[in-house]
Amino acid sequence: xxxxxxxxxxxxxxxxxxxxxxxxxxxxxxxxxxxxxxxxxxxxxxxxxxxxxxxxxxxxxxxxxxxxxxxxxxxxxxxxxxxxxxxxxxxxxxxxxxxxxxxxxxxxxxxxxxxxxxxxxxxxxxxxxxxxxxxxxxxxxxxxxxxxxxxxxxxxxxxxxxxxxxxxxxxxxxxxxxxxxxxxxxxxxxxxxxxxxxxxxxxxxxxxxxxxxxxxxxxxxxxxxxxxxxxxxxxxxxxxxxxxxxxxxxxxxxxxxxxxxxxxxxxxxxxxxxxxxxxxxxxxxxxxxxxxxxxxxxxxxxxxxxxxxxxxxxxxxxxxxxxxxxxxxxxxxxxxxxxxxxxxxxxxxxxxxxxxxxxxxxxxxxxxxxxxxxxxxxxxxxxxxxxxxxxxxxxxxxxxxxxxxxxxxxxxxxxxxxxxxxxxxxxxxxxxxxxxxxxxxxxxxxxxxxxxxxxxxxxxxxxxxxxxxxxxxxxxxxxxxxxxxxxxx
Length: 489
Ligand SMILES: NC(=O)c1ccc[n+]([C@@H]2O[C@H](COP(=O)([O-])OP(=O)(O)OC[C@H]3O[C@@H](n4cnc5c(N)ncnc54)[C@H](OP(=O)(O)O)[C@@H]3O)[C@@H](O)[C@H]2O)c1
Description:
The protein has 15 helices and 18 strands.
């Protein structure tokens, strides 16, 4: 079994997500008793106090509640060490300590290095791991690197980062996290598509009118204004989560469920997304920034008044785009995407709108019915919604629209692993299907880079929208121009 080294072990992500996930795995008997965790932070901390704080975090953040026995076992295998990431000698000390433990306990020498740290440290830590020889284990063991988002902030910086980490770890041992991929309904996209005879044969330009992907948040920048202002909605949400959703919804069936077979198909979709450049930007993109408004009955500040945000910031907190996957299956089908902060609803979903049924002779009284919609709900509810038409009961010819709404979390909530739990399990197993490969990241950065660098500020069409709305009016117009609308289901 492996050692897990959590760089940033005292940070927010470790406290709220990573340690509770390891605890959940322990509760379910999915974490080997031979798995030890080294948590690395900068500040000196009393290890007992640190572990006590972890316990509170794990018990309050876990869906499984407090299991003293499981915690006792896990916590006896957690060690807190502090050093500055820039201190090269500290890695050698850590290596010596870990090797000693591995020898004493007869462990395999397999290790997972998890970067729960600011992206500024990704290269420094990886490089130091390499210099201390921590990237190479004994024959039969593995050394894996898990890296949090964001992976670069442009194509160039992503390439540079990739080049640096690839010097130390081969691609097969690099696990780039996009925690969206571990969300149950995102994993379920392939399940719904490839296990239902009523959907897959219709899954193309012949029957689908458009696809809409929305990832809307009510939250603002939540004290991370400084970080967010250097990113914006396109880099923070579209380049990663939304591109992954497009690729899963539009990909061809992979030959198998092997990680690389799935990723081969996903990357083809990204490569087929038609470029958006200066000339056609205005018809295909709306960027927005929230001004002061009201969310859930409470007044909230505008983006430029958030802490850490310059008063003349031109960073977008909203983006809506019309994309197209220009291959045989999808040519001509708009893929509308939108994402934003401080919107009236928290909503992550994919809507597949089918073409309206052409009238059959004799059924003219059934006027134009509403389109069939298949909605894959990701959050806050998760499940599947389907809209269809039927005749109103009685002697009338009137057609009415009905919905079937399946709530997955209502049925399986207790048994569903949290995203990070699933990701840990997969890294330990060596299953990379829910992690992004370099060519997927490179392909999606190319698209975002072209949008951001291929046009002037004016062409970017930045609009203000009131906090607590569904984004700028121009986002509605993007679809209305083409006789369509956003479905806020
Ligand atoms: N927080 C989340 O919910 C979340 C969600 C998704 C992705 N992420 C990503 O996860 C990463 C970590 O985020 P976070 O929110 O956990 O950050 P954070 O709370 O600021 O934690 C940073 C960690 O790094 C350590 N650290 C910082 N500088 C160091 C140095 N020079 N030497 C040694 N240790 C140092 C800190 O140690 P001290 O505490 O001792 O200073 C702390 O353990 C980021 O890439 C973020 O984008 C976070």
